[in-house]
């Protein structure tokens, strides 16, 4: 048996998964040949390990929302691997739903994509020591306040929209409006001046009503509505919650003031329009970051705002308030042009 045949036989035996003891394969082989075979064997193991990269998607629940975003993320990754010519051979996926009674073993994963604050707080995520993406979390999340996760190995993708994107929507659907009102919780007072400055740069005047608790909302809102053209609602559950939304929307409508919200649900409840992060937007951005990791680009320690966005409108409310709206796609295109200037 020559050297080439000896090495080939070992390699074929390994790749074919032959289970007989390896010592039986070494009969009549010299020590030198045996040494070469051992080196090849180690090399094959290394190759095989590199070909089985696993991505775990850790979900905060089993609801349709999480199942949909996980499915879309996997599909996007596969599609982008093909389009961007990234080597994704051997890439596998596993979707895991957090369950307090289940001990999930995910140590063999190369990348973990976490969806929601519950999953990000789970022991599986906290103890994971490789690259991780945390998505579907707001900036207000306790994940950012009391964080056990290593900042160096975690990339966060917030669902919050950049403030300038709300202003772009306002300027697109109500170009004659110049006075904007906003209710802001007192604990977020440091954001006040940057927001006012951003509005000024967009050619708008921003008036902010400070709120300590739900009891202050009615009075602060009344003062605002007397001096503004549009009310902007940002995603803050301390102000906009199940106990206050109805009153905010009803009072604004009675004063003929349109409300710009932060979710499609807010629009259905009576807001004129909203800009927000949809499930499709979430999966699209999460897959972007996964592709960066697969290309070995540096993504560590990033805190990203929503890159992609969706818009929604209540055409009936808009019409009754004298606002003429084009199609969502046209409005989104106009917004993107305005933001890019």
Residue fraction in strands: 15-25%
Number of strands: 12
State the end-to-end distance. 72 Å
Please estimate the helix content: 40-55%
CATH architecture of the largest domain: 3-Layer(aba) Sandwich
Q: Quick one: biggest sheet? A: 6 strands, parallel
**Treating each run of at least 4 consecutive H or I residues as one helix, how many helices?**
14
Rg calculated over all Cα atoms: 27 Å
The number of domains is 3
Structural category:
alpha/beta
Unreliable runs, pLDDT <50, ≥5 residues?
Answer: 1-26, 41-51
CATH third-level topology of the largest domain: Rossmann fold
CATH superfamily (homologous) name of the largest domain? Response regulator
CATH class of the largest domain: Alpha Beta
* Helix/strand order, N-terminal first: HHEHEEHHEHEHEHEHEHEHEHEEHH
The neighbouring-strand order within the major sheet is 2-1-3-4-5-11
Shape: elongated
In short:
44% of the residues lie in helices and 17% in strands.
What does this structure look like?
With 341 residues, the chain is of the alpha/beta class. It has three domains: 3-50, no CATH class; 54-160 and 283-304, 3-Layer(aba) Sandwich (Rossmann fold), CATH 3.40.50; 163-276 and 309-340, Response regulator (Rossmann fold, 3-Layer(aba) Sandwich). The protein contains 14 helices and twelve strands. The strands form two sheets. A six-stranded parallel sheet has the order 2-1-3-4-5-11. A six-stranded mixed sheet has the order 7-6-8-9-10-12, with helices on both faces. Strand 4 (131-137), helix 6 (142-145) and strand 5 form a beta-alpha-beta unit. The N and C termini lie far apart (72 Å). The model is unreliable at 1-26 and 41-51 (pLDDT under 50).
